[in-house]
Design goal:
Helices cover about 80% and strands about 0% of the residues. The chain contains 2 helices and no strands. It has about 80 residues and is mainly alpha-helical. The termini are far apart. Helix 1 packs across helix 2.
Length: about 80
């Protein structure tokens, strides 16, 4: 037994499905852009860290200051309350 579907109803359902697919496609495009941006930011952070390390190594006074700061802050007691 076949059920009769009005053409207007079928067209409305198909438009709704098309809108849902466009929404999903837009969301996936956004996710792809976020992944690309994350990878680019990671590369940028790595390049900045390497540049900082090279600058510190090239300037003995900065290298000495870096050692002093690391010694000071690495020896700080943990003040977090454990939450």
């Amino acid at each position: 037994m076949t059920r009769h579907v009005e053409p207007e109803d079928a067209a409305a359902r198909l438009r709704l499905m098309a809108a849902m697919h466009r929404t999903t496609a837009a969301r996936l495009d956004l996710q792809a852009a976020i992944v690309s941006a994350g990878a680019a930011l990671s590369t940028l952070a790595q390049a900045m860290a390497e540049g900082d390390a090279a600058d510190i190594a090239a300037h003995p006074d900065l290298a000495y200051l870096d050692l002093q700061m690391r010694g000071f802050y690495d020896d700080m007691p943990d003040t977090s309350d454990g939450r």
